[in-house]
Amino acid sequence: MQNNRNAAESCTVDTMRVSNSLCLWLICFHLPSFLQGAVTERKSPSIRHGKVNKGTVHVFVLAGQSNMEGHGDVDARDHKTNTPKNGTLLYQLHDPRTRGEFKKLWDDKADTWRNLTDVKVWFNEFGIEHGVNGSTIPGINRKDYLAGDLSTGYGAGGNAHAIGPELGFGFNLKLPKGDKALIIKTAWGGTELASNWRPPLSTTTFDPYCVLPKCNPYQVGHLYQVMIEDVERLLKPGVLGKIYPDLEGMTPDIAGFGWFQGWNDGCNVNATAAYETNMVHMIQDLRRAWKKPKLPASIAISGFGGWLIQGQGRTPPDCWDGPNATKIHCHCDGDRDCRRIDIMLSQIAAANLTRHPELECCVEAVETRNFYRPPEYSPSGQGFHFNHNSETYYLIGKAMAESMHNMMWSIDGDVPGGHDQRKIVVPSSSSSASSIEEREAFTLDLDSNYRRIEEN
């Protein structure tokens, strides 16, 4: 699975995998036409046919590219010792330093990973139609998806041995008594915000990726359309109850949007420069489409390499245009490592309500660099997939859930339990900040095992 994804993250060819058939139970339901076909239902004791509940289903849409799909390794073993590899979920479960956090994921009686019955997952990343001439054109007539209670196995390609941020997100949601949650995961590897996910408000600007003769330079990204369509059709009356019988009679409510993406945009100077604007436009468009003007949006920043970005341990000196700048931007030219930093700064800036008063409220950038684990503490050395470290993916999801909780409750009043320390605060354009620390102005999780190397 890991080798299959390497090409998908190439900066020269954006490919998306069409999954092979899974060795899982395939169950067909009498559903609307877009949902008919091969359905993999994760068995769980929560599915009780005929039971009718009342209450709210809080719907969270998690979108992005391969790191939102999820490449956290669950149970890979060392081929010599047959022990769990460092950084796998199984390793975290048995490591006394991390067991306190991860033991809630394990069902001791069943001797397997726990099914969280109050949180459902719907994950569609199958049946993608590919275009010609090397371009990837996702279609909307997809027929295969995963559905069930939250547990392991909702990683990239429906891999039963992989997780994404959804695991930490769902296990750390704070739901009102009697309510449930649904995570709709729409993520595809090797995709760009500038093209594949291009939001409607960005169609009035030039698209540098529209180079084919028949390409419309003002076209809304196909994956943006897929996401909108999936959510709308899933939440039509009567649909959820057919997929999750224990949700029958409950009222779905779109509660938040989570975004984890950025690698492919960082491969191109133009896409990098447009990232902040495109991110703001996506949030505005989703709020309009879902009729949620204050929909909380949690942006997990692209913290590849942790604080030592790409192994260089530096912040370019020209990544700030001055105290009166209208946009954060690194003058990177051909420096790809610099563009990685620029993407992160753009993600942080998009969540700055002083810079973007049009967003009004409820947007946070979530720090992920604290959760990076180097290859020697991970199952692999594949940096753009956070070395397949399950602790990293879990903690990113947990931080996004905490951020979401704060924003959901802050819409109408004070936040119960205080504010999440992983939230990043960026100085406004009128700030007189001059040092690197002041310019980036973030707060760190004091419990992190990996500290930032301060620069003079």
Automatic annotation (TrEMBL):
<dbReference type="InterPro" id="IPR036514">
    <property type="entry name" value="SGNH_hydro_sf"/>
</dbReference>
<feature type="domain" description="Sialate O-acetylesterase">
    <location>
        <begin position="159"/>
        <end position="297"/>
    </location>
</feature>
<keyword id="KW-0378">Hydrolase</keyword>
<keyword id="KW-0732">Signal</keyword>
<feature type="signal peptide">
    <location>
        <begin position="1"/>
        <end position="37"/>
    </location>
</feature>
<protein>
    <recommendedName>
        <fullName>Sialate O-acetylesterase domain-containing protein</fullName>
    </recommendedName>
</protein>
<dbReference type="InterPro" id="IPR052940">
    <property type="entry name" value="Carb_Esterase_6"/>
</dbReference>
<dbReference type="GO" id="GO:0016787">
    <property type="term" value="F:hydrolase activity"/>
</dbReference>
<dbReference type="Pfam" id="PF03629">
    <property type="entry name" value="SASA"/>
</dbReference>
<dbReference type="InterPro" id="IPR005181">
    <property type="entry name" value="SASA"/>
</dbReference>
